[in-house]
Amino acid sequence: MKLKQLIQLTTISILFLGLLCANFKTLASETNGTKRCSGVTFENAATILAVSTNDLHKSSNDLMVSPEDLQKKIYKIHPYNCTIRAKSNFLKFITYTTYVYNDPGQARIDFNKMREAFGSVSKVDVVPDIGDEAFWAGDKRFQRMVAIKGDVLIDVLNPNDFSLQKRIIRMVLDKF
Fold first, then answer.
1. Which of 6, 22, 118, 123 has the greatest count of CB atoms below 10 A from its CB?
2. Mean per-residue pLDDT for 148-159?
3. Cα(132)–Cα(112) distance, rounded to whole angstroms?
4. Mind listing the pLDDT tens digit for each residue in 78-122?
5. Is the separation of the CB atoms in 144 and 155 below 8 Å?
6. Would you tell me how many other CB atoms lie within 10 Å of the CB of residue 113?
7. Domains of the chain, each with CATH number or no CATH
8. Secondary structure of 134-169 in the HEC alphabet?
């Protein structure tokens, strides 16, 4: 009876240790993932958000994509979302999503799909001199800017200001 309990406790301990290691890997990847968001530095974000660099927190997370996209290897780098947030004021933040494709043609297809989708719910305007092409979709409900440059697609969600979104896209695209 004691041997059976010992084996069960050992098994539980191994499983628990495995979960701890998995969580450490997750934390490490989140920390390393913020390097993917180096397009907007803390200094740039502090200027955009009008806060100090010490007041900022940066995070990155992978976006969910379909198993079919993963199987077809649509992306060179898994799509990810970057957020830079002021610790003292949760309303001050920058959020953008980056898609890096294996095929610039697929990037163009998705860019056109996004423009069409936004156009069905809002006015869409062309934004000149950013990447290969960019558009602004804005109304009272939301304001978004999306740009494409070769195999890279950037979607800026926040802040809602047109000129700030334009600056953010330029910063991010300069890193590619």
1. 118
2. 95
3. 13
4. 899 999 999 999 899 999 999 999 999 999 999 999 999 999 988
5. yes
6. 10
7. 38-174 (3.40.1000)
8. EEEEECCCCEEEEEEECCEEEEEEECCCHHHHHHHH
